[in-house]
Amino acid sequence: MSKEPLPYRRNVGIMLVNREGLAWVGRRKDTPDAWQMPQGGIDKGEEPRAAALRELEEEIGTANVAVLAETAGWLRYDFPPELRTKGWMKHYAGQEQKWFLCRFLGADDEIDLETEHPEFDAWKWVPVAELVGLIVPFKRAIYERVVAELGPLVRA
Predict the structure, then answer these.
(1) Which residues contact 7 (CB under 8 A, 6 or more apart)?
(2) Topology, domain 8-153
(3) Which residues, at least 6 apart from 9, have a Cβ–Cβ distance to it below 8 Å?
């Protein structure tokens, strides 16, 4: 009797860029030196675009953005074996993500990492070309695809 394969968790990611065309990354509180763009799960019945705006509010304290574009399809990555035993991750093979390119319309002082459930302990703006090199290895292929598809749409 074979075991059913684990499903992929539906998720959104946000490439948030400022007026200078730099991308926002946050350093994860739970993983030293792990940087990432905002991302999170889609709630039951929630549209991906609404989930992206909610995740921005939950993770960086503001959704003062304009949505500029989204990936044409869903991008998928697998969790490494050592993470598949932790918390909610043990129920999924990985994540299937819809990515959004958003322009931040506010001022940097609007960004507040002290949210109800803080995920980041630091943040910075970086050139889009540097994103992939900052990311944990198991997410790099997704970031390469996001940068290839959405990066050319970023304008200062």
Answers:
(1) 91, 92, 93
(2) Nucleoside Triphosphate Pyrophosphohydrolase (3.90.79)
(3) 41, 88, 91, 92, 94, 95, 96
CB of 148 closer than 8 Å to CB of 128: no
Q: What local confidence, expressed as pLDDT, does residue 4 receive? A: 78
Lowest mean pLDDT among 33-37, 75-79, 81-85: 81-85
pLDDT digit string (tens) for 9-58?
999 999 999 999 999 999 999 887 889 999 999 999 999 999 999 999 99
Q: How far is residue 42 from each of residues 3, 11, 90, measured CA to CA in Å? A: 26, 5, 17
What are the structural domain ranges in the chain? 8-153
For tokens 């050319």, what's the residue?
152
Condensed to tens digits (0 to 9), the pLDDT of residues 132-146 reads: 999 988 899 999 999
